[in-house]
Amino acid sequence: MAILDTGLHLAFTIILALSSATSVEDTECIQTQYFEIGTVGLIPCSCNASSLALIAWVNVNEGKTILLHPNGKKNGEGYESGEFDINSNGSLLINNVTASHESVFRVSTAISLMGSSSSKLICVHTTGM
Ligand SMILES: *[C@@H]1O[C@H](CO)[C@@H](O)[C@H](O)[C@H]1NC(C)=O
Ligand SMILES: *[C@@H]1O[C@H](CO)[C@@H](O)[C@H](O)[C@H]1NC(C)=O
Ligand SMILES: *[C@@H]1O[C@H](CO)[C@@H](O)[C@H](O)[C@H]1NC(C)=O
C-alpha cells in the first residue's frame, strides 16, 4: 500500500506539473471524436501503454482527472466509478456515452516519472437522442 500511495502521490505531482506546463500552448484539439449516446466511446491515445510510466486522462472542461495509469495500474475517480476504462493502447473507453461527455479531453503521457512528458487534446462530440 505504501508503495502504491507513493506512486500515486508522484503521479498527482506530475499531473499538476503537466497541467500547468501545458495550459498555455495546448488549446487546440488535434482530433475530434463523435460518439453516439448510449454506446461505448473510445478516445484514442495512440500510445504504447506498456512502455509508458504514466498515462493521465483529464476532462479539461470539468477540470477533473478521470483516469491515471501509472506503471500499468488503473486509478482515478472515473475508473473507480465504472464510467471509464483504459485499454492496452492507452485509449480511454467511455463505457456508456451520455451528453455530459461532450467535452475536451487531455491525455498526458510520460516515459519516466522524472522525465519529460507530452500531452494532446481531443474534442468529443456526442450525437443522437
Ligand atoms: C446507458 O445509460 C442509459 C441512460 O442512463 C441507460 O438507459 C442504459 O441502460 C445504459 N446502457 C448500458 C449498456 O449500461
Ligand atoms: C511497446 O512497448 C513494449 C515495452 O517497451 C515493447 O516491447 C513493444 O514492442 C512496444 N510495442 C510497440 C507497438 O511499439
Ligand atoms: C491497439 O492498436 C492496434 C493498432 O492500431 C489495434 O490493431 C488494436 O485493435 C488496438 N487495441 C485495442 C484494444 O484497441
From TrEMBL:
Matching entries from InterPro entries are given as: Ig-like_dom_sf (IPR036179), Ig-like_fold (IPR013783)
- Which keywords does this chain's UniProt record carry? Signal
Q: Specify the signal sequence span.
A: 1-23
Q: Give the protein name, as stated in the record.
A: Immunoglobulin V-set domain-containing protein
